[in-house]
Write a structure and sequence with these properties.
The protein contains no helices and four strands. With 51 residues, the chain is mainly β. The strands form two sheets. Strands 1-4 form a two-stranded antiparallel sheet. Strands 2-3 form a two-stranded antiparallel sheet. Strand 2 and strand 3 form a beta hairpin. The termini are close together.
Length: 51
């Protein structure tokens, strides 16, 4: 049996800040959107049985 784990960190440093006016982008609701940096942590754990 094999156990595997993976962790990923993504940082979007876009150097913008502030708010947009009321916009309706395709596929999203009409709203005021905020420009800011984004940090995302994601991970996965897997257990595999080999024969």
């Amino acid at each position: 049996m094999t156990f595997t784990g993976e962790v990923t960190y993504t940082n979007l440093d876009q150097d913008y800040s502030g708010l947009t006016g009321s916009v309706k982008p395709t596929g999203k609701p009409t709203a005021t959107y905020e420009f800011k940096d984004q940090q995302i942590w994601s991970g996965i754990v897997r257990a595999q049985r080999n024969f």
